[in-house]
């Protein structure tokens, strides 16, 4: 059995232009090769979400994952873009 902790980042609640910029930046960081992954939801009105988890399936290693996650959250804070980070724990057998 193992424990994974999926994280969800909900971005929105500010100007549509800022959310559009944040969505574009999320694609650059979390989907740089424009692969068909479902980590970033489509833009809905003025919000979207990002799913990332600590199993690091999309990353070479944990350090790469943490750098991407930290860089994106730092971008949101510096750009004054509102977000909420949520985490859940799942026990996989």
Short summary of the structure?
Helices cover 34% and strands 27% of the residues.
Fold blueprint:
Blueprint: E1 2-4, E2 6-12, H1 16-30, E3 47-53, H2 62-78, E4 83-87, E5 90-92
Helix pairs in contact: 1-2
The CATH superfamily title: Ribosomal protein S10
Strand content: 25-35%
N-C termini distance: 4 Å
Number of domains: 1
Task: Report helical residue fraction.
Answer: 25-40%
Describe the largest sheet.
Answer: 3 strands, antiparallel
Strands in their spatial order, largest beta sheet: 3-2-4
User: Could you name the CATH topology?
Assistant: Alpha-Beta Plaits
| Mean pLDDT rating | 80
Number of strands: 5
The CATH architecture assignment turns out to be: 2-Layer Sandwich
Radius of gyration: 13 Å
The parts where pLDDT drops under 50 for at least 5 residues are none
Order of SSEs, N→C? EEHEHEE
CATH top level is: Alpha Beta
Spatial shape = globular
Question: Which structural class matches the secondary elements?
Answer: alpha+beta
Number of helices: 2
Descriptive account of the structure:
The protein has 93 residues and is of the alpha+beta class. The protein has a single domain, classed as Alpha-Beta Plaits. It is built from two helices and five strands, in the order E-E-H-E-H-E-E. It has helices at residues 16-30, 62-78, and strands spanning 2-4, 6-12, 47-53, 83-87, 90-92. A three-stranded antiparallel beta sheet has the order 3-2-4. It has a two-stranded antiparallel ribbon with strand order 1-5. Helix 1 (16-30) runs antiparallel to helix 2 (62-78). The longest helix is centred in the last third of the chain and has 17 residues, at 62-78. It is globular. The protein starts with a strand and ends with a strand. 11% of the residues are buried. The mean pLDDT is 80.
